[in-house]
Amino acid sequence: MQTTSPRERNSPPHGTCLICVVFTLAATDFGAALAAERPDVVLMTVEDGSFTGRLVQSDQTEAVIETESGETRRIPVDELIAIQFNPPASSTPRAWLLLANGDRIDGAFHDMSQEALLMEWSTHPDRIVLAAPLETVTASIVDPPASLRELQPLLREISSGRFDADTLIFSDGSRLAGELSSATPDAFRLKTSVGEVAVDSARVAALALNSSLVSFPAPGKNSVLIRFVDGSWITFEDLAIDKELLARGRASFGERLEFPVSMISRIEFFGPRVVALSEVTAQDVSATPYLSRRHDMAPNRNVRGGFLRIRGREYARGIGMTSGMSASYSLDEEYSFFQAVVGIDDQTDGLGSAVFVVEIDGARAYESPAITGDSAAIETPRIDLTGADELTLRVEFGEFGNIQDVANWCRPILVR
User: Which residues pair with 241 in a beta bridge?
Assistant: First the structure.
C-alpha cells in the first residue's frame, strides 16, 4: 500500500439512507409458493415491543408482517429497532477483514489493486469478490487460531491502532513492517528498509495496515447493520429485499452488494429515532482500579480487546467495561428510553462477578442481580428517559473485586 494516495483520496459521498425492504405478493401460484418460503421473523419496534410472523412486504414507509393468527400488522420503518431472523450467527474464528468502522467480513485474500483489497466472500453462494478501499481497512485475520481464547491476544494487538507502517504479524508473534505492495492468497509483498520482501501467506497470522492512513466515510443520517449467518457484520447506507428474497444494498465502505436473505441473521436499524450508544462520546468516564490494575472503556470491544461475546453469542455493537467503571452521557431531554443486553464476557471462562447499574440524573433506575461468567445474558427493561438530562452506566464490584470482570453492555441503544 503506497503511502501517497489511495488512502488520501476523497471517500465516496454518502447520502441520506433510504431503508427499503421490499417483498411483493403476486396473485399467482408463484406468489403462493413464495409466501411459503418467506422467513419467520421477529420485529422489534420503538412503540409496541415485538411482533412475530412472516415478513410480507416493506418499503421506505412501512413493514408488513402476517402474524400466526393471520392478522396483518403494519409498522412504520422509522419505528423499527431490529428484525431477527431464525438462523443463528456463527462466532467461530474466521479469516475476517476488519474495517475502521467496526465492521468485519468473512473473506479470503483474492488480490490487491492500487486502491483496494480484494476479498472473496467465502460463504456467499457465488463467492463474490469484494473491493474494500485501502483507507477503510484496519487489519485482516489471515490465519485464524482454532479457538477464541487464542484469538483474543491477536485481536488486542491489531485493535491497538498503533501501527506506523503496514505490518505482517507472524504465527510465532514476530513482525515485519514496511509498505504493502501486493497481497494474494499465496504471498504478501512488502517494501522494507532492506528492499522488497515476499512472504509466504502460510506464515502470516494477521495483517495490520498503517494506522495513520486509515479513515472511513462519515455515516449517513440512517443506516442498517446486518449480522450474517457466517459471523460477518456489515453496515449499509441503504437496503432493499425483493420478492425473490434477494437483498441489495450499498455497504458503508462503498461497495454495492447482493446476497440471498438466507444469509441474514439479524438487521438493526439506526437513524433519527434509534441511536447506538457505543457511537456516542461519553461526557465523563471514571474508573476505580482494584489492586491498582486499570482498564480502558472500549467501544464495540470488551476491555481486553476482543469481540463482545456472552454465552456463545457475539454482538457487533456495545461497550466494554470492568467493575469499578462508569460512563456518563448527556441526553438533553431528547430520548424516551434506554435498553441494552448485559453480561460477563465468555473470555473469562465462567469467572467474574459484577452488578450492572443504570442511573438517570444521578438516581438509580436499574440494578441487575449479581452476574457471573456462567450467568445468561440479561436484557434490561426499557428504562424511561423522559425529561432526563444524563444517563450513567456503572459496573459495580462483585464477589472478588474486579478479577475477571470483563463486563459487556451489548446493543445499548437510546430511543427518541
Answer: 247
